[in-house]
Amino acid sequence: MPEDLSPAAQFAAAAAAEAAASVAAVSVSGEAEAVADGALKHSGGEQAALSAAAALFESAADSAVGSDAESSSGRHARGKGGAIDLADTELFPSLGSAAKGSGGAAHTATAHTATAHTAASGKQQQQQQQQQQQRMTQVVDLPMTEGAVGETVRRIMEQTRAHIEVSHNRVGRMSTYLISGRREAVERAQRAVCAELAPQVTQVIQVPAAARGLVGGRAAAAVQEQTRTRVAVGRAATALRVGDGGGTFDVVDVHVTGDAAGVAAAVARLDAAADRATARRGERVGDVPREAHALLVGRGGETLRRLRAAHPQAQIHVPGPLSRDGAISVVGESRAACAACAAAVREAAAALLRAAHVTRVAVPKRQHQFVVGAGGRGLAEIAAATGCGVDVPAPGSADEHVTVRGPDAAACAAAAALVAARARATAVDAIDPADAHAAYARPGLYAARVLAYLADRGRLRRIEADHGVALRVPPPAQLHAALARGAGPRISVDITAADARAVAAARAALAALFAAFPPFHFNGIDVCPAVHAALAGPDGANVARLQAARSVYALLPPPGLAAVLVVYEGFSPDVARLPDAAAREAAVRALLRATLDELRAAAAAATDVWTGAVPPAVQRALDPRDPLLAGPAMRRGAAPDPDPDPESAAPSRYTAAALPPLAPGDVELRGLRPDVQRVAAELRRRADAAARLARRRAFSDRLPVPRHAVPHLAGRAGDAIRRAHDVTLEVEVEAVPSASAAAAPASASAHARLQGPRDAVAAAAAAVRALLDQLEDQTAETISVPAAIHPLLIGPAGRYARRLEEKYATRIRFAGSRRADSAPAADDGDAPLAPDQILIRGGRKGVAAAKAELLDLAAYELEHRHTLRFAVAAAAVPRIVGKAGARIAEIKAATGARIDLAEHDHHGPADVTTTVDVTVVGTRAAAEAARDAVQAIAAELDAQAEAVLDVPARHHRFLIGPGGARVRDLIRHAGGDPASCRVHFPRAAEPADWVRVKGDRAVVAALADRIAALVADRERMVTVPVPVPAAQHAFVIGRGGARLKDLQARYSVEIAVRRPAKKDAEDPDAVLVTGLPDDCAAAAAALRALVRDEATVTVPLALHRRLGGRGGSLWRRLRSELDVHADAARVDPAPPAAASEDHRPAEDAPDVVFRDPAAALAGLTADWVLRGEKPKLAQALALVDREIQAAAADAVAEARLRINPRLHRRIIGKQGATVIKIRDATACEITVPKRDSGSEWVVVSGPRSAIDLAIDLVNQAVEEHD
C-alpha cells in the first residue's frame, strides 16, 4: 500500500480489506489493496482511496450477507442504502481525527485540509471515546440451517442497527455470527438471531407434580419471555413407581421448545423453580429398549441391586415384560442423584445389549401363550431364573421363533431350555367346527354361528369345567362381526390342558356338540339395532316364548350390530316324531323361517321412521356420543362436507343397502317410536336454533379504520363493543412488508367488519365511529406517584387499573410492568418510564378524569399508609394478640390501623431480651393510637412476675381445694384476680414438688407468702382420734354433711369419719381430726359435745308402726320439740298380712269395713334408742311413755271405705291439702290407693275415738264436689 496516504486513509483501506475478508470468509485483503492502489493512481488523492475502500466494504458485505440467497436464486444481492458514510462511528468506530505523524504523511495531511476531514475538537473526541466504551461484540455459534440466511440477517441489521458478520464452516456444519454495535442493539440482535436462525429443538423434562404451580402459568410465561422458548406443561400427572415397594411419585411432563441455548436456559430455570417445592426428582427413562429390561434386572435381580447400590440416593423400577408403559422409572432424592442414576441406567443398558448373546428357539405358534404365561408370569420367571429376556412374536405375526437374549451362552441355553419346557408342559389341540359338516359351503359362517350360540348358552364353559381344559374361542364381538358380514375365514377352537387325555376327551365332546347342531339349525336376519329391545320384549319375554313354543332360541347381537341369529335347539316334539332325516330338516327350516317372519313383522311394527332436512352446519356438529341423540339409527344423505369426519358422519354402525337413498341435507331416523320422536324433536330444535343464529348474523357492515386505532379495536375497546351490542367484530388489516412497516402511513388500509342483526350492527357501527372520533383526540400524560403504592393503584390482578381503563376509555401503563419492560408499542412512541411514573393515554377528558382519580387514590393511600415500626418483647406477644387474636383485633377495630407482627420462634425462650418487630400502618392518628395501645400492653409485662415455690406434692390437693376453690380464695386474699393471676400445679401423674405463680408482682409476692405459711402450717399438723359412737356418726355428719363442713370450716381442720363398709376397723368409733394442735383440740371438744346420751325404750309393735319410723309423727315431735333423735334398734317381724279385699267386691258388700290391726300384732314389740341431752332425754322418755299409755287406753282401729276411684282425687285435694287437713284434725292416717291399682278401698286408721270423725270428714270431702 502506498505510504503517502494519511493515517486515516491507510486505516480505512486496511479496515475495508479486513472487513471484506471476515464477512465473506475468504482472503480478499489483496483485492482491497489493489483497489486502493488503483484509486490512488487514477486520482492521486487519499479521498479516492477512502471512497474505494468504502465501496469495497459495501460490496463485500452485500455479497456475504446475500451469498445464500444468490446460491438459491442466482441473482446478486444489492445494497439499498446508497454509499456508506465514512463519518459513521457505528460502522467505523476507530476513524477519528488524523493522528500526528512524521515526514511527508503529516505534511500531506496538512496540505489537504480542504478535502480531508477536519481535526475533531476535544469535546468530539470525548464523545467518541464514550461511544467506543458503549460498544460491544458478541459471537454466536449456531448449527448451519438449510435455508438462506442473507435476507434474515439483513432485516435484523436494519431493525436493530447492529452489524452482523456471518461465516460458515461447511465441514462442521456450523455458522458463526459476529454481532457488534451498541450494547442494546447487540442484545436485541443476538435474541433475534437465536430466535430466527437457530434450529428448533424440543426437550421433555419431568418435574414433581407438587411443583406444577411453580413451573406453569405465569412462571412458564416468564421463562418463555426470558429465554424465547415455548413451555408446555402437561395436564395429567404420571405416577412413577418408587422401587419395588409399591409407592408412587407423581411427575408432570414439561415440553420446552426453542433453540438449544434457550432450551438449556429454560430447563435450568424450570428446575430451579421446581426445587422450591421439593428436592426429589423423577424421570421416565423411555429410550431404553424393552430387550434390555431383563438384562438390567439380571438373574435374581443381581444387576439391578448393583445399580441401586451404586446410587443409594435414587430408586429404580423396571417394568414387567407385558407392562403397557415400557419406561423405566428413576426417582432420586435430588436432581443430581436422579440424573446420574438415569445416565447410569442408559449406559448399563447399552453395554449389556452390546455384550448380549442371542438364541432363537422354534416353538409352535399356539404354544407361545404358555411361554408368556398369565400376565407375563412365564417371561418374568425365566428372567428371574436365568437373567435372560425372552421376546415372543406378536399374535398376528407368522413367525414361530422365540428370541432369547442373555448375558452369556450358558444363560441363553438355560433360558431356551425353560422356554421349551414351558411350551411342552401344556397339551394343545385344535378343532374346526366345520369339520363335522364338510359339505357346507360357508364353513366360516357356520363356525361363527355355532360358537356364538354355544358361548351365549354356556355350553363351552360346561365343557371346560367337566374336562378341566381351557378353550380358546374368538371373542363374542368378533363372532357377531362375522355374522354381520355373512362370511369369514375358517375358525378353530384351541383346547389346552396339562393332561393330553383331558384334551382328547374335550375334543370328542366338542365334536359331538358340533355334530348335534348342523348348519340348517341356524338362520339369521338383519334388524335395525334400534328395535332389538322390542324384539326381546320386557325382560326377554319374547325370546323365552319362542324357546318354549318352538324350541328356537333368538340370539341378539351387541349394540350397533344388526345380525339377529335364530337357532333350533332340537327339542320340538313335532320335528322329533318325523322318521325321515330330510323331513326333519325341512321341518326345522320351516320352523326357522316362521320365526324369522314373526321377528320381521315385530320389527316392522315397532319401527318408526322420520326423515327431515337438517342444515349442514348442524349435521357437522352432531356427535355420536351425545346422549341426546342416543337410541335410533341415523342415516344421512349426501355429505354436505367434502371431507367429513367418518365417526361423526355415522353415529350408528347400522346401514342397509336396500334402503332408498336420501336427498342431500336430509337425515333419516329409524328406531322405536319414542326414541325417534325424541331425537327428531332435538334435531328440529337445533335446526331452528341454527336458523335463528343465521338470521341474527344475516347483516354485515365494513368500516374503514385508521391503522393507529387497530390495537384498540382488537383489544379491550373492541371487546366492550362486542359485549354491549352482541355482534361479531373483526379487524382486517392489509399486510405491510416488514422492511417498510416503520414507514407505513398511519392511514394504512384497515377495516372493521361487523356482523349481526341490522339494528345491532348499526348501533355497533355508531359505537365504532364514536371510538374513532375519541381516538382522534388522543393525548398522553405522565404523572409521578411513589413506586411503593403502585401495586395498590393497580389492584389484585390489575383489577383497579382495568376498571379505570374501561371507565374512561384510556390506557394506563405503570413503570416496571411487563409492557414497560418491553419495547414501547408502535402507537406509544414513549421512552421507558421512571420507577415512579405512570403513563395515561387516551382522550383528553378521559385522561384528565383518570389522572384526577389516580391522584386522589394515591393521596388517600399515602395518607392511610403512614407506617410506624417499633419493637416489643417477645414475651409480650401473647398478651398483645390475646386469646384467638381477640385483643389485637379489638385494637385494630378501635383504631382502624393495620398491625403486623414479625415472625418469631413461638417455641423458643421468650425473655425480655428477645424482641419482635411490630409494623403499624394507617393514618397518622390511627397509627399512633395503635402504637400506644400495643406499647401499653407490652408495658404490663414489666409489672408481671413469676415465682416457683417448693411445695411438697402431698400438699397440692389441699392448696387446690374442692374444684379449685381454695386456690382462688388465696388469690383473692392476696389482692389479685383469678383471671389475671395464675397458679400452676404439676399434673397428677407427675410427682413434682413445685408450684408456679404468675401475675402482678405484688400479688405474686403476697400469694407466695400465704402459700408458704399454709405449707408450714400443714407441716405442723397432727391427727387426733376422737371417740364418737358409730351409731352417732350420721348425726355428727349432719344432713348433706352440713354439720361436718361447719366444724371443718370453723376450726380449720379435716375430719375423717370411717365409712360404714369398714366394719373390721380396729376402733370403729374413732373419728380422726387433722390440723394444728390447738385447732385439733378445739375441734375434738366440739365433737365430744355433739355426742348424745342414749336410752332404750320398748314399745308395742302396733305403736311403732303407727307413730314410729323416720316419717312417724312421734319421732318428728321428738326431733322438733326436744332435739332428741330416735332409731329403731330392734323390730319384731309382723305376721303375714291377710289377703286384701277383692278390688271389685260384690254388690251386697258393705261400704265401710272396720278392723282391729292391733289384734294381729299383740305381744310384738320394738326397741327404740333415744339420743339427746340428759334433761331432754328424760322428757323424751316421759313423752314416749305417755303415748304408750294413751295407745293402750284408746285402741287403734282401722276402717276401709269403698269409694269410686274417680273420686279419690277429691279426698287428696290440691297438692294433698284435704288429706293433710283430715290428718291434723283427727290424728288418723288416710291411705288412698294408687291411681293405677284398680282398688276402691280408702283406709282410715287411728284412735278408735277419732275414727268416726275421720270417716265423716272423708265422706264430706267426697260429697262437697257433687
TrEMBL record:
PROSITE patterns: KH_TYPE_1. Residues 98-134, 630-640 have a biased composition (Low complexity). Residues 98-138, 623-652, 1127-1151 are annotated as: Disordered. Residues 136-198, 199-275, 279-350, 355-424, 697-773, 777-859, 864-939, 943-1016, 1020-1092, 1093-1189, 1195-1263 form the K Homology domain. Keywords: Repeat, RNA-binding. The keyword Repeat applies. SUPFAM superfamilies: Eukaryotic type KH-domain (KH-domain type I). The keyword Isomerase does not apply. It comes from the Eukaryota. GO terms for molecular function: RNA binding. InterPro entries: KH_dom, KH_dom_type_1, KH_dom_type_1_sf, KH_Vigilin_N. PANTHER family: KH DOMAIN CONTAINING RNA BINDING PROTEIN (PTHR10288). This is K Homology domain-containing protein.
